[in-house]
């Protein structure tokens, strides 16, 4: 009979479970802002990398056009020798004096802006002002993100 009224058990009480759950929720709510900042930091790092790669492709195109490596009859660029669009970097241009018809492609595809999630980039031509938000339409001298707001560094995305 003594064993029937024994009160020791091996499980947790309801109060212990509530306290443990509350502590876990407090820790999770503290970690949420850290996760958001790290996700944003990752997108900004991808944006920096993408801008660098596209700008390298534009510079390589200009260098090839300046030294005459590209077939002039195919090109639609101004006197500055910059590409007419980002699509021209993707489609490629035939080498000058190459009978095989090989094309040099500078980009595999128009990259996606990691901040906006689209391929809609802001473009600047050689004749545009550095802070211009409207493309002159003659050539692609530079690109920028159309994302609104500022990065974690406090600089507007369009000024990167």
Describe this structure in words.
- The protein has about 160 residues and is mostly helical.
- The chain has one domain.
- About 35% of the residues lie in helices and about 5% in strands.
- The chain is built from two helices and four strands.
- The protein has helices at about 15-65, 85-90, and strands spanning about 95, 105, 120-125, 140-145.
- The strands form two sheets. A two-stranded antiparallel sheet has the order 1-2. A two-stranded antiparallel sheet has the order 3-4.
- Strand 1 and strand 2 (about 105) form a beta hairpin.
- It is elongated and about 95 Å long.
- It starts with 13 loop residues before the first helix and ends in a 16-residue tail after the last strand.
- The relative contact order is 0.13.
List the total number of helices.
2
Radius of gyration: 28 Å
Number of strands: 4
Average predicted local confidence, pLDDT: 85
Outline the biggest β-sheet: 2 strands, antiparallel
> Beta-strand level of the residues, as a percent range?
5-15%
Succession of helices and strands: HHEEEE
Question: Helix/strand/pairing class, anyone?
Answer: mainly alpha
Name the strands of the widest sheet in spatial order: 1-2
Number of discrete domains: 1
Q: What is the terminal separation in angstroms?
A: 81 Å
Helix content percent band: 25-40%
What sort of overall outline do the alpha carbons produce when their principal axes are compared?
elongated
Low-confidence stretches: none
């Amino acid at each position: 009979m003594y064993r029937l009224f024994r009160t020791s058990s091996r499980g947790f009480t309801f109060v212990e479970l509530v306290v443990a759950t509350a502590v876990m929720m407090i820790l999770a709510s503290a970690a949420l802002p850290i996760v958001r900042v790290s996700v944003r930091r990752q997108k900004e790092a991808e944006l920096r990398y993408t801008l660098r790669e596209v700008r390298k492709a534009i510079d390589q195109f200009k260098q090839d056009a300046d030294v005459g490596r590209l077939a002039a009859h195919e090109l639609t660029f101004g006197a500055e020798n910059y590409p007419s669009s980002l699509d021209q970097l993707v489609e490629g241009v035939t080498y000058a004096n190459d009978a095989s018809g090989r094309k040099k492609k500078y980009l595999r595809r128009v990259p996606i802006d990691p901040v906006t999630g689209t391929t809609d980039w802001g473009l600047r031509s050689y004749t545009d002002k550095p802070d211009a938000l409207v493309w002159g339409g003659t050539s692609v001298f530079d690109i920028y993100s159309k994302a609104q707001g500022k990065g974690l560094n406090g600089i507007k995305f369009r000024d990167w």
